[in-house]
Write a structure and sequence with these properties.
By secondary structure, the protein is α+β, with helices and mostly antiparallel strands. 25% of the residues lie in helices and 34% in strands. It contains 8 helices and 21 strands. It has helices at 27-54, 90-97, 130-140, 145-159, 174-186, 204-219, 231-237, 255-262; strands at residues 4-16, 63-75, 79-83, 105-110, 114-117, 192-195, 223-227, 240-245, 248-253, 275-276, 280-288, 297-299, 304-312, 319-326, 332-337, 349-357, 365-374, 379-392, 395-396, 399-400, 416-424. The chain has a 6-stranded mixed sheet with strand order 5-6-7-3-8-9, sandwiched between helices. The chain has a 5-stranded antiparallel sheet with strand order 10-11-13-16-21, with no helix packed on it. α6 (204-219) links the parallel β6 (192-195) and β7 (223-227). The longest helix is centred in the first third of the chain and has 28 residues, at 27-54. 34% of the residues are buried.
Length: 429
């Protein structure tokens, strides 16, 4: 049996409500944060223990546990697929393994050269050209100048951005950035490759190339950690599946078993409100039928209303994103964002939303909504399962109302109206 190259033992990551974790923006700042991490963790754990004593065990009321007591091992040559709903803790785990952030407690030991692709264009400088960023990013990831020279043509060919190689990155689309970023990371030839759900930005052809490249990496005996909402990709690529639910490991099994358990409708539990985060609180979330009654099931042709309230605790230039997902395979169906509306970013205080949709017009099946507050760079609030709904076929004169599969889910949330109650200060009436 091959030896483990990743050992995670009792890993936990907590965020205290009201505190913001600073991310170093310089090399000196990053080194200082790394050097001070043991002392900072000791003080943090001491504060938590003291709080438990003085508050009678209620210290966790002020904490959000992104991860809690996570333990597993990954052996050399394994391709581990990590699945779970938005906010389950997957990205936090990868950031700890990539040494971007440190855990609150526990440890993660990695043996081998690691290459991480967690966010689009991470490490790219917007003012530099694509060519210059290849060399800079490759150097940051640990490649020598000679290695980059030797693989440069292959990297550029794989990325497909040859025509724009001498154009500043700030003029690239998000898809072009991720193509170039993945091309650099994939050609690093690391012993361990960590990939988050960034490949969804690329087009179908490029995603196929990326999957092929990761399969080549895996066949070469290297280790891959792959986070994705594309369950068919997890099943095809991975030799093992890790399901993370609410910060803990729910199941560690073969990919098919992990996916089957993850998608079981009877295991889907909606969130309990209010839900408090450091930046905001989601006060409530309801799905109402055409008569205005809370409903968990709707007809294919029936109108409905999504009603919820968000209290922002601090001034953020943030928008709200509501996404409908198919329950069976976590496919993104439709979305709504305040970025596209005249109401603009959220304000401090409580804003109530009522999104009225003319007709469901979505295939019969089981679905759920996720709700997040975010800006271009950060996610401040993420409720992965705000509310569930079942869409049932309409019956008219004994016959099921037809629906056209070729149109997919695109019609949902296209014809809608939004009513908002402007934010009021939390301490005012």
């Amino acid at each position: 049996m091959t030896k483990p190259v990743i050992s995670v033992e009792n890993l936990s990551k907590a965020y205290r409500i009201g505190l913001k974790e600073e991310i170093p923006d310089t090399l000196l700042g990053a080194f200082t944060a790394w050097a001070q991490a043991p002392v900072r963790n000791f003080r943090r754990l001491s504060r938590l223990d003291t709080a438990r004593v003085h508050k009678g065990g209620h210290a966790e009321d002020d904490l959000i546990w992104a991860l809690k007591d996570v333990s597993f091992q990954v052996r050399e040559g394994e391709v581990l697929g990590i699945i779970g709903r938005n906010g389950a803790g997957k990205s936090t785990l990868l950031k700890i393994l990539s040494r971007i952030t440190e855990p609150t407690s526990g440890r993660a030991v990695i043996r081998g050269r690691v290459s991480s692709l967690l966010e689009v264009g991470t490490g790219f400088h917007p003012e530099l050209t694509g060519r210059e960023n290849v060399y800079m990013n490759g150097t940051i990831l640990g490649m020598t100048r000679r290695e980059i020279d030797r693989k440069f043509d292959e990297i550029v060919e794989f990325s497909g951005v040859e025509r724009f190689l001498d154009t500043p990155i700030k003029r690239y689309s998000s898809g072009m950035k991720v193509r170039l970023a993945f091309a650099v990371a994939a050609h690093l030839e690391p012993e361990i490759l960590i990939v988050d759900e960034v490949l969804a930005v690329g087009d179908a052809e490029f995603q196929k190339k990326c999957m092929g490249k990761m399969q080549d990496v895996a066949r070469g005996g290297r280790t891959v950690l792959f986070v994705s909402h594309s369950l068919p990709s997890i099943r095809a690529l991975c030799s093992r599946g890790l399901w993370i639910n609410k910060g803990s490991i729910a199941l560690d099994a073969d990919p098919s078993t992990a996916i089957a358990e993850y998608t079981r409708p009877d295991l889907a539990a909606a969130s309990t409100f209010p839900i408090r985060f450091a930046a905001a609180t989601i006060e409530y979330f309801e799905i109402l039928d055409a008569q205005g009654t809370p409903a968990s099931s709707l007809l294919f042709t029936e109108g409905f209303t999504i009603s919820f309230a968000v209290t922002l605790h601090t001034q953020l230039f943030a928008h709200l994103l509501l996404i409908l997902w198919r329950r069976d395979d976590a496919v993104r169906v439709a979305s709504f964002t305040t970025r596209e509306l005249p109401i603009g970013p959220l304000d401090v205080g409580t804003t109530r939303f009522r999104i009225s949709v003319d007709k469901a017009r979505v295939y019969p099946g089981n679905y759920y909504f996720s709700l997040s507050v975010r800006n271009k760079h950060s996610i401040f609030v993420d409720v992965p399962d705000a509310g569930s709904v079942t869409i049932a076929p309409s019956v008219l004169d004994g016959a099921m109302t037809p629906f056209v599969q070729a149109h997919g889910f695109a019609h949902l949330l296209r014809d809608y109206t939004v009513d908002t109650v402007p934010a009021h200060r939390p301490n005012s009436r």
